[in-house]
Amino acid sequence: MTIRTATADDLAAIMALERTSFPTDAWSEAMMREELGSPHGWYIVDTEAGRLVGYAGLRAVAGARDADIQTIAISEVSRGHGRGRKLLRTLLEEAARREVWDVFLEVRADNPVAQALYISEGFAEIGRKPRYYQPDDVDAVVMKLDLRGWHAAGRGTVVGETPRNRALTDAGTDAAAGASPDPWSSAGGVCT
């Protein structure tokens, strides 16, 4: 498992997986291209033997205390091996690096596997958007995670460890050079 930052060169592979994973409500190529290039977005890919098997995205506006998990997708043959959890945790570490306090997401009401993953990481349902996913008429379950609580529960990085560096190193890639300050020191949070 190798997780790295997505680039424009990954667009075709991401779109192939997007269309397979979300056949009725896939994003357009133009939307995904915009997301990959957005200064507020951070997209990552999971590769194995040079082949893209997953991707995920975070949207966190600079200076905001909240962020959104935009998407997570894993190829069908690669599911059930912890890849979705690793992508999710990598996004959460990036959110922490950006000093985010609350992370939101929407998940299909008919996807109990994804809901169970989010709940196991500390997300809680805070509402529903009726018939949000079209044309399937499926509700969106809106979930929220207190990121400082996630760290306090021992799911995040340890004090003094740079979240981005740890997430990418744990995923099997080289850590970014240099260290950055603990993202919680100015936010008053505690990393364990």
Number of strands: 7
> CATH top level?
Alpha Beta
Return Rg in Å. Answer: 16 Å
Major β-sheet strand ordering: 1-2-3-4-5-7-6
* Number of separate domains: 1
Backbone structural class:
alpha+beta
Summed over residues and divided by their number, the pLDDT gives a mean of 83
CATH architecture assignment name: 3-Layer(aba) Sandwich
The helix/strand series, from N terminus to C terminus, equals EHHEEEHEHEEHH
Q: How can the largest sheet be summarized?
A: 7 strands, mixed
Query: What percentage of residues falls in helices of 4 or more residues?
Result: 25-40%
Low-confidence stretches: 158-192
Distance between the termini: 25 Å
CATH topology: Aminopeptidase
CATH homologous superfamily caption? Gcn5-related N-acetyltransferase (GNAT)
C-alpha geometry: globular
Properties at a glance:
single chain; 192 residues; alpha+beta; Aminopeptidase; 7-stranded mixed beta sheet; 6 helices; 7 strands; 29% strand; globular; disordered C terminus
Provide a short characterization of the protein structure.
This protein has 6 helices and 7 strands.
Describe the structure.
The chain has 192 residues and is of the alpha+beta class. It has one domain (2-170): 3-Layer(aba) Sandwich (Aminopeptidase), CATH 3.40.630.30. It is 30% helix and 29% strand. It has helices at residues 11-21, 29-37, 83-97, 112-120, 147-152, 163-170; strands spanning 2-5, 41-48, 51-59, 66-74, 102-108, 124-133, 138-146. It has a seven-stranded mixed beta sheet with strand order 1-2-3-4-5-7-6, sandwiched between helices. Helix 1 crosses helix 2 (29-37). It is globular, with a radius of gyration of 16 Å.
